[in-house]
Write a structure and sequence with these properties.
Elements: E1 4-5, E2 12-20, E3 23-27, E4 30-45, E5 48-53, E6 57-60, E7 66-81, H1 89-94
């Protein structure tokens, strides 16, 4: 399956979710923060695999490929257009965290 480029109309998206097991590979121009409130997930971010457990989160910078590989968890996802933070825009678009 090919990665999906996700287009969003709204500059801010927040949602709670539960029971997720997989989510296909995708990338987008937004910052994404995923917080696990219960359970655990295995994720792939920029080719690296990480295990997320209760009370842990990841942050994905713009245009970084990421997917949920497996797991069963509940949590909250926040997706924000980085252009809402002009003072950090250059940093957000040029760099990425070593450990998301």
């Amino acid at each position: 399956m090919f990665p999906q480029y996700e287009k969003r109309k709204n500059p801010i998206y927040i949602a709670g979710w539960s029971g997720i097991r997989q989510f296909p590979a995708r990338f987008h121009k937004h910052l994404e923060i995923l917080f696990v409130t219960s359970g655990s997930l295995r994720v792939n971010i920029d080719g690296q695999v990480y295990d997320l457990h209760e009370n842990e989160l990841y942050i994905v910078f713009p245009n970084i490929l990421h997917a949920i590989i497996q797991g069963e968890a509940s949590g909250i996802t926040l997706v924000v257009d980085h252009e809402l933070f002009p003072m950090y825009n250059d940093m957000i678009t040029r760099f990425k965290p070593k450990t998301p």
